[in-house]
Design brief:
about 60% helix; two-stranded antiparallel sheet
């Protein structure tokens, strides 16, 4: 099998309000060995925050934080399980990057759908930093619930189609 590696030369995107702290990213980067070569990877908190805002780079500032791929949500869950996240650093970086709202929405949806290991205090702090009006937060909760139901419906429909497609009549029984 092959290992897919996504290389980035810059995490900033022109016209997007989320502004990664590149100096902080380099300062917290961790040394790894890639085969026989030395390399650097993002610190776990930075990796998680990058996953939370990744669609902004791909789709631009008008992207809907709830229009997630299941792979991204799965990646968020796996990072929270496999890596030791400095949650204080994560919340502070979200503030510095101007990404608290986006991180909150991503983690809220991930929590509802794939149940990653996120301390409730992190969502509370991100929500406070996001300065949501009460009606805005109600709308965010409603959108997250809608997306969970939508994804479950799509996955359920896919499973039904797959099961139906696999039911091939036996040629000997007509």
């Amino acid at each position: 099998g092959f290992l897919k590696i996504e290389l980035h030369h810059d995490l900033r995107e022109p016209g997007v309000k989320v502004r990664p702290d590149l100096n902080g990213l380099w300062a917290r980067a961790q040394k790894v060995q890639l085969g026989s070569l030395p390399g650097l990877v993002l610190a776990p908190a930075d990796e998680l925050l990058h996953l939370c805002v990744h669609d902004l780079r791909v789709h631009g500032p008008l992207c809907d934080p709830f229009e997630d791929s299941l792979r991204c949500l799965y990646d968020i869950a796996q990072v929270t399980i496999a890596l030791r996240i400095s949650w204080g650093q994560f919340v502070e970086s979200a503030r510095v990057w101007n990404a608290s709202r986006h991180a909150y929405c991503r983690l809220l949806l991930a929590q509802k759908l794939v149940q990653p290991q996120i301390p409730s205090s992190v969502l509370v702090r991100l929500r406070a930093q996001s300065d949501f009006q009460s009606f805005e937060h109600s709308l965010v909760e409603l959108m997250a619930t809608y997306q969970v139901l939508r994804i479950r419906y799509i996955v359920g429909s896919w499973r039904v189609r797959e099961k139906t497609r696999c039911r091939v009549p036996d040629a000997g029984n007509g």
